[in-house]
Amino acid sequence: MELRNTPAKDLDKFIEAYLLPNRDFCTKVKYAINTICSFLKERCFRDNYQSVWVSKVVKGGSSGKGTTIKDQSDADLVVFLSPLTSFENQFRFREKYIKEIKKQLEACQRERKFDVEFEIQSSELFSPRSLSFTLRSPQLREGVKFDVLPAFDALGQRFRDYTPDPQVYVRLIRECTNLQREGEFSTCFTELQRDFLKQRPTKLKSLIRLVKHWYQLCLKRIGKPLPQQYALELLTVYAWERGSRETEFSTAEGFQTVLKLIIKYQYLCIYWTVYYNFENPDIKEYLNRQINKPRPVILDPADPTGNLGGNPHAWSRLASEAEAWLSHSCFKKQDGSPVGSWNVLAIVHCTGGRELNMCHPLNTSAS
Q1: CA distance 128 to 130
Q2: Rounded distance between C-alpha atoms, residue 108 and residue 110, angstroms
Q3: Model confidence at 316: pLDDT above 80
Q4: What pLDDT does residue 352 have?
């Protein structure tokens, strides 16, 4: 059944039937990921780069966050390398290590060290941020897409409920400003990005899957440019935090709330103070500059330099799609009336660290 024709009351069944990955698929993807992680830790820099050691490999992407869609998987494997001792080092030398990873991966392929096959995508970028490839095996109907990204270990060893030292962000802000590379080093904070989503209720992750599926339908229909998919994941979390916070909720109402927020993209100013906040004066000054930029503003909860608001034209295109979708069956009750949306504000603006709500709720005619 197509999403647009699915009655609102059956959206949970749609997610279960078409979007939730089965256990067997997850097991096979986990095996594929472990294969690559072992290669990166034990083989990749063993011969030509004996002075290089891998401090850790962190799994991000949908696999790391727990939002994988059925028969689809993408994994960001962030490789923290000992020679990368600053954000600037990461920017200057990552291409060198990407080339070495590619070389060693191809060697292992030729030597048949793996019982899986890799299809490496060639990058046309002058200085690529990652090595992209697809892993295939007879057990997986669809290939698993990987991005391997060398990174500076800015966080060090982490423990549960970890909060970074504010000086980590002070350094990040200073180096990003000097290099004019805001958002460039989000990979260093993959663990925090992953934990921010991974700890969420199961049903919220299912809503995120639904929004991602809708986004992919829009991408297929109208193509790029569109906002980053990660921005929509964060927008879904925001909608739930402000409108529900329940472990059980109406999926149709949550879905409609997200689309209405997209329609109101010109007003969006969203951020979190989970890992960074306004207490440090340097971070406070920077955050106030960030949240006063032209809308939409959606700050990465793990990286204050990462504004996922992006291109307003891309949001305008997606907003037009969202507007059209609100007339479909998936947003209507059995009697044909709209399902309604959560009482969420389209904007939360901050001045000096104090939140000020400055917009009408989405479910009023004024919005």
Answers
A1: 6
A2: 5
A3: yes
A4: 37
